[in-house]
Write a structure and sequence with these properties.
77 residues; mainly alpha; elongated
């Protein structure tokens, strides 16, 4: 760009470049997803880690699995 370009023209050029790059990234992502095998998808899913520890309700001191175990023990008795 030359030094005679107005700030508005520079802003428009930067915006156009940003969107062109964004579109290119989205195109590559779509191609990768289309070519991905189910096995690779499961590998990625299994490798994911939560950002924080799961929330537990401190008022009951149990998670859902523990509550279900207690419920089933009472039901069968």
């Amino acid at each position: 760009m030359n030094s005679d370009s107005s700030p508005m023209e520079l802003n428009e050029a930067a915006r156009a470049e940003y969107y062109a790059r964004w579109e290119a990234v989205e195109t590559v992502k779509a191609q990768e997803l289309a070519a991905m095998t189910e096995e690779r998808a499961w590998q990625i899913i299994r490798s994911l880690r939560p950002f924080a520890e799961p929330w537990r309700d401190p008022s009951n001191g149990m998670g859902l699995v523990e509550q279900q175990a207690v419920f089933h023990q009472r039901k069968s008795s």
